[in-house]
Design a protein that fits this description.
The chain is of the alpha/beta class and 228 residues long. It has 2 domains: 130 residues, Rossmann fold (3-Layer(aba) Sandwich); 93 residues, Alpha-Beta Plaits (2-Layer Sandwich). It contains 9 helices and 11 strands. The strands form 2 sheets. Strands 3-2-1-4-5-6 form a 6-stranded parallel beta sheet, with helices on both faces. A 5-stranded antiparallel beta sheet has the order 7-8-11-9-10. α1 runs parallel beside α6.
Length: 228
């Protein structure tokens, strides 16, 4: 996957390094040349540009990227201008860092759907979510183990947990299942999500189920690469 990170401060650089660890292609940019020089040989490459300048911004491969992450720190004006220009020039998914409630409100009004309020401690978890194909949410427990919510692959609809043989084949277990079911509320059919609790191995899986898996990072990644 290809990521463009605009802003190589504490969060942006930490996210970039975490994505590199996931074998992703990461292009970093910052207006500060000391930051660019620091990460030139650590990321795929890094460039010094003013991202509020549309012509300069277009020199970044934002059209080819899977994600563009706007991680500009304290300069809200630069962040908003960059977000507007990125949205104008690419169809890639956009993630923006907000540093205040009003900053987030404006970003959402601009149509930026994924907004984060993180620092370095959140960067590794975000990198894992972005790179783990098909995962809806991931919680890292340490450097080896994680809990991931993944949409049930169509191939497994109608099978039981026992039939999947996840422990034997992938060294992971199903902690629980989240299931959307049709319910009638005031005469109207609507969807209601429920957690099935501790699920027995004979539980039959249904389309739309979300599996909550526990296992090693590499094992869940292998499973999602094959079925995600």
């Amino acid at each position: 996957m290809k990521f463009v990170i605009i802003g190589l401060g504490n969060f942006g650089s930490s996210l970039g390094m975490a994505l590199i660890d996931k074998k992703a292609e990461v292009i970093g940019s910052d207006i500060r040349m000391d930051k660019v020089e620091l990460y030139t040989n650590k990321l795929t490459y890094a460039v010094g540009i003013d991202s509020t300048d549309e012509m300069a911004l277009k020199t970044l491969p934002i059209k080819e990227a899977d994600y563009v992450i706007i991680s500009i720190g304290e300069d809200i004006g630069a962040s908003l201008t960059t977000a507007a220009l990125v949205k104008k020039n690419t169809t890639a998914k956009i993630i923006a860092r907000a540093i205040s409630p009003i900053h987030e409100t404006i970003l959402r009004a601009m149509g930026i759907e994924k907004i984060v309020h993180p620092e370095a401690s959140f960067a590794k978890e975000l990198a894992n979510n972005l790179c783990l194909k098909g995962a809806l949410k991931t919680m890292l427990l340490d450097n080896q183990f994680e809990i991931s919510e993944v949409m049930l692959p169509d191939k497994f609809v109608g099978k039981t947990i026992l039939e999947l043989e996840l422990r034997r084949k992938y060294n992971m277990i199903v902690i629980t299942i989240m299931r959307n079911e049709d319910v009638i509320v005031e005469g109207q059919k609507t969807k209601s999500s429920s957690v099935l609790g501790v699920v027995p191995p004979e539980t039959t899986l249904a389309k739309g189920d979300i599996l909550v898996l526990f296992g090693k990072n590499k094992d869940i990644e292998a499973f999602m690469e094959k079925y995600g």
